[in-house]
Design brief:
2 copies of one chain form a homodimer. Chain A is of the alpha/beta class. The first copy, chain A, folds into 2 domains: about 5-215 and about 330-410, Aminopeptidase, CATH 3.40.630; about 215-330, Alpha-Beta Plaits. Chain A contains 12 helices and 15 strands. Chain A is elongated. The two termini of chain A are about 15 Å apart. The interface between A and B is large, with 60 and 60 residues.
Amino acid sequence: MTKPASNLQIDSSRLWDTIHTTAQFGATPKGGVRRLTLGPEDKQVRDWFRTACEKAGLEVQIDGLGNMFALRKGRDMSKPPIGLGSHLDTQPTGGKFDGVLGTLAALEVIRTLNDAGIETELPLCVTNWTNEEGSRYAPAMMGSAAFVGDFTVDDILGREDAAGISVAQALDDIGYRGDKPVGAQKFSGFIELHIEQGPILEAEGKTIGVVEHGQGVLWYDGKITGFESHAGSTPMKHRRDALATLSEIVLAIETIATELGNAVGTVGEAVIAAPSRNVIPGEVTFTIDTRSADAGILDQLDQRIRAAAAGIAAKRKVEVALDLVWRKEPTHFDTTLVGAVENAANALGYQNRRITSGAGHDACNLNTRLPAAMIFVPCKDGVSHNELEDATQSDCAAGANVLLHTVLSLAGVAK
Amino acid sequence: MTKPASNLQIDSSRLWDTIHTTAQFGATPKGGVRRLTLGPEDKQVRDWFRTACEKAGLEVQIDGLGNMFALRKGRDMSKPPIGLGSHLDTQPTGGKFDGVLGTLAALEVIRTLNDAGIETELPLCVTNWTNEEGSRYAPAMMGSAAFVGDFTVDDILGREDAAGISVAQALDDIGYRGDKPVGAQKFSGFIELHIEQGPILEAEGKTIGVVEHGQGVLWYDGKITGFESHAGSTPMKHRRDALATLSEIVLAIETIATELGNAVGTVGEAVIAAPSRNVIPGEVTFTIDTRSADAGILDQLDQRIRAAAAGIAAKRKVEVALDLVWRKEPTHFDTTLVGAVENAANALGYQNRRITSGAGHDACNLNTRLPAAMIFVPCKDGVSHNELEDATQSDCAAGANVLLHTVLSLAGVAK
């Protein structure tokens, strides 16, 4: 006996319990999670996840980089499945929700369909991507990046962590180097549920973010070479102060990103060479992270930041070198899938808004090769990558319900 | 047979050779000197200096903190001597001139008087102060500070270096804990020749700086507490960026010091807690060093810097804590002695100007208890505390000649 699919809701308590069950693998005293990719805690959660998927009747396959694919058959097996999921690894001092919510909500969707006896037309595939966080191995979003061909498998297998352990070794150590070829799994589309990791939904009182775009990124390494001199005996007008130069650059980036709109800009690292209380800083190295969902604005950010730095350098008679170390183009999620997410949110009566993802996600990588979209739910104070990361049971359930109904609309209910 | 004192000149080559002889004690491959106070190289230069003083007929006494006093008798031994000298220790990567010039020029003055057969009315006392630099032991200018009673001898003897070696132990290790009570040596006045350690004389083409004032100092420890969040997903208007806050403070200090005039202000240290390329800095600690030769301006610096920091903190919704860790009042050198330096420079035909010392010196400490003054000569590009520190033979000789004639005018030539 099947319930009508249109009224279907996931089991909020079961999802919440599952989140807290897996949060034990790598639990920290402050209530967060430390579960570095391919480490012993990641093996624990992977083992738990595989067992749970198998109990839910899914066939679990693992590819050569440890990406996990748990298949639920559909009526029409001639078409690739709709994928749903995220990642189970965390930051070194991470929270319970980043990534985990998306993977466990996908499992909850399957359990809900099973309970309701609903068969879908297209098959479904619950996914756990390897090393989304990038804390132990670079690059972040490694599994999905290799999946879409941005890196070769051999390149990734050879990457080493700080202790010199390769990805290949780490996969073998925990028994998660599978035999499915990387990239072999096909998808008709992919939906990722994730916490927002920003403050917008909470600030606006929205439950669901319909993720339309992912920001493109420019990363720079910067170096300012001024002149180190005595803080007491060097008059203000004779100074070539590298920190004062950086200060103008930091504020210029803030102004430029604000003026352009649809952009952010941050100096996250700044180190004075040979700092001393009574010495004018002579050299400062720093990094810039600037982003926009609009490729044209990325270009303007590049031009304006470089022009500002050059102008400040000339005025202060110092050298400023800016080295662009990474450019990632903006993500524009598949309009059909974005529409499906929005329809599901509206049908369920959740307050929602279109939103741009500030952070990178596996779905951004996947979108370069197949139709993808994302669902955001609020997180407390916008905090993520932090043991204080928090989200409500009700918002997590809302996100899972939107995931359920988006997937149902894409996969179809078998008549 | 005595030469007329008014035409007397020091021996420029002998002074230059002496500077380069002592630069061998702790010579670095880059042409600088590493001669940390009370270490083996300091013992080498002290031994050399004691022998040179004794060869010049001086009686060398050493006090309980290793301060060295080399006395040349005058005709009238009822009056305390005119002191002249500086220090022989250096920074870890120091130069050949900082301190050394003042001590060796004092020795050169004695040698010149000896060669000319000139007896002075008042006795003279060539001095080498212990630990002016403060690199191995805090505080800097330790020997002269204890000499004037700012610290007790026991306090100083108990200070330890990074390896846990006390000042007492270090003095005993090199045999320079003398039996003369600290502070027992009396002076009728004290003249210190030093390189400027700043760019003013060189920039203005002056040979001699007649040092009128020494700057007072305010030192602060600062801490900014904003909020760490994701550089991609936190909109510009939601940020509480600790580094952008510091940037405004750095530029405000620059503006305040420039507007007040007769002041400098520097942020020499700034450390982001848990820096990461894609994280908005949530906490920054920093230091401020601000100085003026005018106590009223010091007060204004304090008020305006605190007000600026509070305003920036309120605007950015962050916390800024400023802790004043040191206040040193400005030095106003003895007007008679300053006049004597100026007269000597004019009589010798050297281009000169009144100047304020940006750095602290032993003479600043001494001036709190006895009449003192200083003579500056230019150093290349204003660079000091650096192996690149440099000065010309001609400028060093000019400084020594001004020292000679200042001392002669103060001590008087015995008829």
